[in-house]
Design a protein that fits this description.
CATH superfamily of the largest domain: Rhomboid-like
Shape: elongated
Radius of gyration: 28 Å
Strand content: 5-15%
Largest sheet: 2 strands, antiparallel
Number of strands: 4
CATH topology of the largest domain: Rhomboid-like fold
CATH architecture of the largest domain: Up-down Bundle
Number of domains: 2
Structural class: mainly alpha
Amino acid sequence: MGIGDRAYMRNLRPAREPISATAWVVGVLVAFFILNLVQESAGADLLGWAMLRESSPQAWQWLTHGLLHDGFWHLLGNCLILWWTGAIVEREHGPRALLAVLAAGTLFGALAWALTGLGGDRSGLLVGISSGVYALMLVALLDKLDHQITLLLFFFLPVTLKVRWLLIAITLFTVLGWAFAELPGRHAWPQWHAAWDDAIAHSAHLGGLVLGWLAYRRLNQTNLRVQDAQGYVNTSDSDDASAIARDAYAAEEISSGTNNEAKSPASLTKGQARAELDTLLDKISAGGFGSLTAGEKRRLEELSARLR
């Protein structure tokens, strides 16, 4: 791509960014919530097919239950975390990884919930994408444990803490809720009773956390292998490009009578010319076109012509 093809060199606005996968997912969840409101107001059964019924689960319901939510606050909580952590996963690993982790977390959470109820009350229903959101949260934050974040508790009380402590608190609450509320609440055990009652599927959240940890390890192992392979393959080209770039920046000295000469753009491969051009464009981006020396401006024109 030549210099003339750059949006800021043509003095044109860059192309509009497409809607992110994270935004699409949030939009779908909101649409299903509105459809559920229509269902309740009309007294119709429009979304019964999507709920996961413990007594008679259908194959598609292991995923479709994530499209439904039990009230506005359930939806809002999931969407806020999804918007935050989903954007991180999408930026670092791509939209496919985002959707894969979200779907796998939703499925794994449903399986954990079903296994928790074996031998107990089989009349429960599961809705919500919380387990998938928990999986995304671990993938997004496990490599940022020492980062400081500020949360708005109850939407008005700011609390600043490290990511590490946020994840520990969420995991601890999930495990305690599963062991002392949900698990005994779904079984008629004579010696182990629920310490409190709630309608939270802690087991599904726990399944999402486990899947998120596995996905984090998998995605980061894959990234390391790709980076190592690229480093092995491109080391010589990178060294050549760096050497050429150093020569190019010395081109300005030609007008001053020095003996340094940059290689002719015609003698460069397109990859080498593009690498050198990108270095100059980065300098423009950081300090403006005026930050280039006279020699760098000439070199910019030459490289642009080479790549047209």
